[in-house]
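Dear colleague,

Thank you for sharing your sequence with our group. We've completed the structure prediction you requested, and as agreed, I am returning the results in plain text so they can be pasted directly into your records. Please verify that the sequence below matches your submission; if there's any discrepancy, let me know and we will rerun it promptly.
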Amino acid sequence: LVGSNDGTLTNMDAPTDWVADTDAGGVRALDFDGADDYVQMGALSSLTNWSISVWLKPTATTGYRAIFGTPATGPAAVYFKAGKFGVYTTTDRFGAITVANNVWSHLVVTGGSTIRIYVNNVADSTYVSSAAFAGTGNARLGANAVAGTERIQGLLDDLRVWDQVI
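Please find the predicted structure tokens below.
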């Protein structure tokens, strides 16, 4: 994560919410219940060129499900709705590929002068639009950073945020 931010588990229990992921060879992932779990992160510097990647194994894909976001200008968030991966900076931008329940997916979104969405190394959607991922407040993993709602239900692993388009 840009700035090497550490997070604080909120409404989560480390011994039970850090789980072994047998699909990924025993790597540990965070298990979010979709009700009140999230990780409170520190403030993220404003990013005009950025890339975010994460591994996701959802157990629910209905409604908005925030993966990572900041409560700043925008606000900015990476999320999915009805199984479609997307990003919000000044408006919703969804991909076209459906993310299945109970299956690991690698999700990447990049921004700057063009927003690009990738699902499992497949180019999903492109939007010609300037999109800053601002961060003048505490970021959250697993929930909307503004209201703390729109929570993820399932496993998240290996979130990475870069200050460049990769």
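Summary note from our side: The mean pLDDT is 84.

Kind regards,
the structure core
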